Amino acid sequence: MDTDQWLRTAKAAGAAYAVLVAKHCSGFSLWPTEAHDYSVKSTPWRDGQGDIVGDFISSCHRYGIRPGLYYSTSANGYFQVDNPGVVKPYDVKAQERYNEAVMQQITELWTNYGELFEIWFDGGTLPPEQGGPDVRSRLLELQPQAVCFQGPKEMSSLIRWIGNEDGVAPNPCWSTTDIISNTIHTELGAEEEVGECPQYGAGNPNGSVWAPGEADMPNRKPNQWFWMEGEDQLLYPVEELVECYYNSVGSNTNLLIGMVIDNRGLVPDADVEQFTAFGQEITRRFDTSQEVTSGEGEVVELIFPSPTEINHIVMMEQIAEGERIRSYRLEALVNGQWKLIVQGQSVGHKRIVRMETVEATSVRLTVDEAVAMPLIRKLAAFHVL
Ligand code: IPT
Q1: What is the percent of the chain with per-residue pLDDT over 70, rounded to a whole number?
Q2: Which of 22, 54, 246, 295 has a Cα at 20 to 30 A from 4?
Q3: Domain extents for the chain?
């Protein structure tokens, strides 16, 4: 196993953060936990002395990638726990034992490996009021700054599931919402019902919780999160990953791509090629703009020194000050005439607009509706060939 190779590959893909699945639904733990024996400790690998979590975190630091850990509390085969984090068939003592094991394990993961950028609660985490472990107190104590995917709703940096594993966010897509997974079980019942609720993916501009979207998808399809021999042909073609980038990052949503590890403990060669080509393609498209500006107010204009061919516009709001835009218009000045390119609603962290090539001398962003003074961190035009 070589976690450096994993992180080198993530870096080549352009990743800013990486999340290791420290324990998936089986319960098998990739670090030598004190909670039970179902872990790397009981394997012949490195004579039971290995620690994949530790290696992963060190490699993240080596490659300048922010580390995150996935630890689901909602399912654990070893304890016969299934969604939403309940021992089945239910037994009070068994549930207590499970809750204690969770507390022990999260304490290990959140104490022994330094500051975590993101913590992933697959399927949310059952709150103590409903018989779950007190994850939120431990988080507030040990990793209060972490971005929590479907985390306890009291956390200050939440990120929500976009509602599918296809790398697609809706448009518009708002950073605020009323619904995150932790509230799902309390307020709405089963997750299936929530799937029907458009707010889950798109958010709500008037929502009470700041929880932008994260679109997770595997790098093999359909839905292949795990490695199996002879399945290289299932890799998403790079063009399709690029399309997912437009549909997620380009729609105010983080993109999280699964990375399988093979029986050598490495990212398979074909996947290294895929991730590297993907990173190169994104750089090729978006590294060099024709022109870029920033500004504030209802109208921000991007002026070219001479008529310039463009076919992409990227907008970003200064989201540290909130997501303020509610509707906007983009126009280009072509042969002395303003031509409407697109009308839209949400911008947020980033909105990427693709358009037919025009030769423009200026691009104008007009904010038609906003809840406060629009702060435009970036307005940039590109010509992607
Ligand atoms: C699904 C969980 O139920 C959901 O809450 C979220 O965590 C999602 O995974 C992340 O991909 S289950 C999956 C089979 C859609």
Answers
A1: 94
A2: 246
A3: 3-286, 291-382
